[in-house]
Amino acid sequence: MSLTDTYTLANGTKIPVLGFGTWQSADGDIAYQSVKWALDAGYRHIDTAAIYGNEASVGRAIKDSGIPREFLFVTSKLWNDARTYETVTNALDVSLDKLGLDYLDLYLIHWPNPAGVQIKGENAWQSANAETWHAFEDAYTAGKTKAIGVSNFQIHHLEALTKTQTIAPMVNQNFLNPSDQQVELVAYNNAHNILNEAYSPLGTGKLIDLPQVSSLAEKYNKSIPQILIRWSLDKGFLPLPKSTHESYIKANADVFDFVLTGDDIASLDKLQAVGELHTNADQVSF
Fold this sequence. Notes:
eight-stranded parallel beta sheet, two-stranded antiparallel sheet, alpha/beta, 13% strand
């Protein structure tokens, strides 16, 4: 496995096994430079979102990199303020315009049950997801995105979507790391050919100082973030590490010259719930 290797999504689309996250990378020089460094370091998979507010800077870095579009994989996500067919379609067009792209490689519903859902009534979130997904399917059919998926969806959200979908989600991006392994959700995704993408693979920094991780870093002569990213890869996830520091961006991609033993993976698995857990998507207030 290497930085140029790919997973294959349900529709045959190839997606690089490691992505570069841009959450909390401020619009402007910070987002621009971090994405530029990532592309210079060999990353070809860039993950952003409308709510991150940095799509324009990400797009500028992509353009200035000079890398041909066909060699890049770009993901963005739909925010919670656009959950009708028309607003979803408009939101995708806005994201494409800010990124300076003709198409996305992957478009995700960011949250399954937003507090301000525009479609009202009983089971409003199910209706909103169904209408949103209809717009996603049409965007996919029209070629405005090469693949479609979801983020922060739990099993009951995915099950509800099956009642109306004609195309199944190809990706489910979730908070995944040794502190929150979401075992049942991961198994469900695997069983339905939905790729598990792991945001916050370092556990938002809460796993960095743990002796169980630092001892493995010493054993493999690797950094603690590299151990955690490798754990994610060895689980079959697609990790999305994020940094705004050039040296860390480069180091986070240097994870393909070793694999963790089964015993070492098991030792990291024992860290379940020692740090943060995922946000309950049915209780979010945004």
